[in-house]
Design goal:
The protein has three domains: 6-119, Alpha-Beta Complex (Sufe protein. Chain: A); 128-190, BFD-like [2Fe-2S]-binding domain (Arc Repressor Mutant, subunit A, Orthogonal Bundle), CATH 1.10.10.1100; 203-277, GMP Synthetase, Chain A, domain 3 (2-Layer Sandwich), CATH 3.30.300. By secondary structure, it is an alpha+beta fold. Strand 1 (26-32) and strand 2 (37-46) form a beta hairpin. It is globular, with a radius of gyration of 20 Å. It has ten helices and eight strands. It is 44% helix and 19% strand. Helix 1 crosses helix 2 (61-74), helix 5 (102-119) crosses helix 7 (158-165) and helix 9 (203-224) crosses helix 10 (253-268).
């Protein structure tokens, strides 16, 4: 029998914010009933803050408690605050989870990440966890998810991967492959060869990439709502832009700059970039 904290039991027996928000501003759906766990998170966002949050989940008591805790953690907080929340924050809020149930906290963090991407207007072309080779066929877990979760949570053993993703917890035929993935992840980490490391860019290369991301990734999203953006200047790592259309003078313009423009440029060009609005 697993040892649950009083807080886990409270959120399991008396879950908060169960349900679904109609006309939600943000929706995050992860997992699948076929694999045993699924979670849908819906958010109402006002003035850059989470005004309301509700969830529906199919899963065990820890899944219910983790989702309930997550909704309580994010209500009233700004987008910038909630985007920093990790699965370990959910675990800490609950006072701990059995190691075998850590995957429930991961599912909550993934649903939040999906919801914020939805709010930013990012079209979900494919689930990044479903890109790559399926390693665990019992629970449909890919090599990409195993690598990502291992790095995010400092996991080194197959047992830990099973606890966080369920991979390897079924027939067990994938155990050797999971161990090989872990060996590769930490070999690269220890030799400084981090995966997905962005190459060092010259200033001219950086300018061209910023222009490309603005034209290909950011402008189409703004255009859908009647807004637009112009690149004014690049001063070192400071990107100066001007907003047009419905984005100009909008009360949520700063959220657009940080939540969409800066987020995309950091993700696709350089983590050190800062976006500011042109004055005048």
């Amino acid at each position: 029998m697993w040892d649950y904290t009083d807080k886990v039991m409270d959120h399991y027996e008396h879950p908060r914010n169960v349900g679904e928000i109609e006309n939600a501003d943000a929706v995050g759906e992860v997992g699948s009933i076929a694999c045993g766990d699924a979670l849908k998170l819906t958010l109402k966002i006002k003035d850059g803050k989470i005004a309301d949050a509700k969830f529906k989940t199919f899963g065990c008591g820890s899944a219910i408690a983790s989702a309930s805790a997550l909704t309580e953690m994010i209500k009233g907080k700004t987008i910038e605050e909630v985007k920093k929340i990790t699965n370990n924050d959910i675990v800490s809020f609950l006072g701990g989870l059995p190691k075998e149930k850590m995957h429930c906290s991961v599912m909550g963090a993934e649903a939040l990440e999906e919801a914020l991407a939805f709010y930013r207007g990012e079209k979900k072309v494919a689930d990044p966890d479903n890109v790559g080779e399926v390693v665990c066929k019992c629970f449909n877990v890919t090599d990409q998810k195993i690598r990502r979760v291992a790095l995010a949570n400092n996991l080194h053993t197959v047992e830990e991967i099973t606890n966080y993703t369920k991979a390897g917890g079924g027939c067990g035929l994938c155990v050797d492959q999971i161990q090989a993935l872990l060996d590769d992840v930490w070999k690269n980490e220890n030799t400084g060869k981090r995966e997905h490391v962005k190459p060092k860019l010259s200033f001219l290369q950086k300018v061209k990439m910023i222009e490309k991301v603005i034209n290909d990734e950011i402008r189409p999203i703004l255009n859908r709502d009647g807004g637009d953006l112009e690149l004014v200047d690049i001063q070192g790592n400071k990107v100066v832009v001007r907003l047009f259309g419905t984005c100009q003078g909008c009360h949520a313009s700063q959220l657009t700059l940080s939540g969409l423009v800066e987020h995309k440029l950091k993700e696709l060009v350089d983590d050190s970039l800062e976006v500011v609005e042109h004055e005048g």
